[in-house]
## 1
Amino acid sequence: MLVDFAVLADYALIDQHGKLSVLGLFQHVWVGSFPAVHPRTHLVLRVRGRRTEVGTHPIRIRFVDEAGAELMGGDGTVQFGEPPAGVTEIEAGAVLVFDVPLPRPGPYAFEITVDEGFAVRVPLSASQLPDEG
């Protein structure tokens, strides 16, 4: 199992046929002052595996600051059903929506781990808007 696609976006959805649509990719935000919250941040993932990995797999998401301190996080599962005959790879998409806490300017990251394997990092940095004076 591996996360082969992970981005931050203004909006994303998965339609009834499993097609992923993503709008407004970003890795940096500007805020008026700190501490701040970036509302309705969409974390978009696609997880892939082999047919032999059908079933439930644990997933962990952490939002960390530059020192690695966890600001928020959670555990869940990804469920892979049996694919049609002849299909050897399986995939699942996910769109998770967060109000992201930003206590100070600087670098942050979402760390995503599936099956307690290698963590994928999705960077996010934050800066304060300059005074217009």
Note: The beta strands are 2-14, 20-26, 28-31, 36-50, 55-65, 70-80, 89-102, 106-114, 120-128.
## 2
Amino acid sequence: MSEILTVTELAAHLKVSKRHIHDLTKDRTRSGEARRHPLPVLRIGTSLRFRKNDVEAWLQRLADTQAA
């Protein structure tokens, strides 16, 4: 099983704010347009958790998209 991260741990890992992590999990941007690659999240009650393997795969997809 992959390591599970909290919002705080993931924010520190990615060197971004916790608010930015919350924003990245949303399917839509503030302007209402669909987000192509929302951050994969596990919602447990009101808590957000992240599988480290899923986050690494998400980062790779972003890198592949930017390279294309």
Note: The mean pLDDT is 92.
## 3
Amino acid sequence: TDQRAHRIPNLLVLLMLIVGLSLRSYMEGSSGLANSLMGVGAGFLTLIVPYIRGGMAAGDVKLLAAVGAFVGPVIVVMAGLIAAVIGASVGGVLLAIDRYRNGSASVERMLTTQFPFAASIALGTATALILRGLI
């Protein structure tokens, strides 16, 4: 949905959050629930500043927080940082394409170009899990 409509449905994020918290709580007890809650907070805090500065949509912040419910604080921060690198790379490619097509890339276009970030979050999460040896 992010690719097609630039939206991440709140219901999807809420379901992810509930399943992540429930699963970690069921599998690991109260320590799993605590780790899951810390992951939610860490995921939220990782992207809240870019959101406040206008560089991120609220759905992306909520999505990374929901991912944190599954993977915990360490991996979700890694995932967010890796997603930022991936997103910056995609942004650079889009800027290069824009410059090629239009002969120049204006600062205005550079600051207002939007692209779906959910795919970057997914790739960042998978990469973080691989790097931590969990996949």
Note: The first helix runs from residue 2 to 5.
